[in-house]
Amino acid sequence: MALSLINLLKLKHSIITAGRKNCDITIDLNNEIKIDKFPKNIDTVIHIAASFGGTTYTDFEDAININVLGTLKACQLSQTLNAKQFILISSMSSCLTIKSPYYTSYALTKRQSEEIASLYFKNSNTNLTILRPSQIYGNSIVFSKHQPFFYHILNKAKNGEDVLIYGKNDALRNYIYVDDLNQIISHTINKKISGVFYCGSMEDVTYSAIAKIAFKEYSKNGKVRFLNDKENIPDNIFEKDNTLYEKINFYPEITIEKGIKLIIMQGKL
Description:
Layout: H1 2-9, E1 18-19, E2 25-26, E3 44-47, H2 57-80, E4 85-89, H3 105-120, E5 127-133, E6 135-137, H4 148-158, E7 163-166, E8 172-173, E9 175-177, H5 178-190, E10 195-199, E11 205-206, H6 207-218, E12 224-227, H7 243-248, H8 256-266
Parallel strand pairs: 1-2, 3-4, 4-5, 5-10, 6-9, 7-12
Antiparallel strand pairs: 8-11
Helix pairs in contact: 1-5, 2-3, 4-6, 6-8
């Protein structure tokens, strides 16, 4: 996401990147950030760093250090640089509760990152924007790390193999293509929008629908089979809210069918 977002924003803005590697300024959110490395009077800070956590103590610690304390450091940096806008790329996972089967250290710390930023900028002149994307996918294999079953389906279809889905439930998901998300961020910056917003695709999609599209696009004859003796895969979707899209006059344009076509056309699997 980072590289494609940078390339898009460079078309209209002067960009300075900061991170652990391959950036203009080297920083590590696990350590103190040296403010003197940065130029003053930055207009907008976009905070996209994230730890996806896990179940071990180390995973929890890493999620807290990056998602919560790292966000706090980014907020302080933004204020010190007199930034007019701070954009936090959060996740729809921040809306989950402990009752959800998808509630993880990532979901917990993403919600806490939002709360930290909201409190920090409560009485500040910096405008805070929190964007909550649904599940992000794109034409790079790097997305497969966080959307493994989506890309597993594509690989099965590519090889003409049947796609096996546990249980009887044809689980619903919401995937947003990375190029659409980048456009949303760009429009949000240009229109100086502040607030907390849902950023999902216009459509929810089932696993079987993804598989059928992939079989069609790869011209393969595999089938979707449900393993009824296995435990059902629960849905993971959220109530739609197009408030941001109305404000920026842009709606996600890449359907799941078009997204899969782009992935195949780029030959990234």
